[in-house]
C-alpha cells in the first residue's frame, strides 16, 4: 500500500500533516502536501480522513489483494464514503458511520 497525493487537488491546509501519527507528511515549499518516505507509511488512513478535498488516496497493490486498485474517502456528515476504484474502472463504495467506526 502506498500513499498518493494529488497535488492538483491539494489546498495546502496541513490537516493531513497534523493527523499523521508517524509525522510522515509535510508541506513542501509550494505549500502542497507530500510524503517523506512512502515505505514508512503505516496505512492508518488518518491523512485521508482529514483531507477536506479528497486529495489523498492509497494504491492497493497485489501484495495486499488490491491488484492495482486505488482507495479514497470522502466525508458526508457522519459517514465516510470509501471508494475503491478497481483496475477494470468500476467503483466499489463502502459507507462507514464514523461514530461507530472505532468501537471495540
Helix/sheet category:
mainly beta
Measured by DSSP, the beta-strand proportion falls in 35-45%
Which series of helices and strands comes N to C?
A: EHEEHEEEE
Q: Mean pLDDT, as a whole number?
A: 87
Alpha plus pi helix count: 2
Helix % is: under 10%
pLDDT < 50 stretches: none
Shape descriptor reads globular
Could you tell me how far the N terminus lies from the C terminus, measured between alpha carbons in angstroms? 25 Å
Report the radius of gyration as a whole number of Å: 14 Å
**Can you count the beta strands?**
7
Largest sheet: 5 strands, antiparallel
Order of strands across the biggest sheet?
Answer: 1-4-5-6-7
Quick synopsis:
The chain has two helices and seven strands, in the order βαββαββββ. With 104 residues, it is mostly beta strands.
Mind explaining what this structure looks like?
By secondary structure, this protein is mainly beta. Helix content is 10%, strand content 36%. It is built from 2 helices and 7 strands. The strands form 2 sheets. A 5-stranded antiparallel sheet has the order 1-4-5-6-7. A hairpin with a 5-residue loop joins strand 6 and strand 7. The longest helix is centred in the first third of the chain and has 5 residues.
What layout of secondary structure does this protein have?
Layout: E1 2-5, H1 15-19, E2 25-27, E3 33-35, H2 46-50, E4 56-60, E5 69-76, E6 79-85, E7 91-97
Antiparallel strand pairs: 1-4, 2-3, 4-5, 5-6, 6-7
Amino acid at each position: 500500500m502506498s500513499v498518493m497525493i494529488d497535488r492538483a487537488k491539494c489546498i495546502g491546509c496541513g490537516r493531513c500533516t497534523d493527523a499523521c501519527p508517524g509525522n510522515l507528511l509535510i508541506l513542501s515549499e509550494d505549500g502542497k502536501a507530500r510524503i517523506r518516505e512512502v515505505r514508512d507509511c503505516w496505512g492508518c488512513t488518518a491523512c485521508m480522513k482529514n483531507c477536506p478535498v479528497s486529495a489523498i488516496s492509497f494504491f492497493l497493490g497485489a501484495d495486499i489483494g488490491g491488484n492495482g486498485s486505488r482507495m479514497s474517502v470522502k466525508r458526508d456528515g457522519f459517514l465516510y464514503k470509501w471508494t475503491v476504484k478497481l483496475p477494470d474502472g468500476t467503483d466499489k463504495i463502502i459507507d462507514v458511520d464514523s461514530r461507530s467506526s472505532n468501537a471495540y
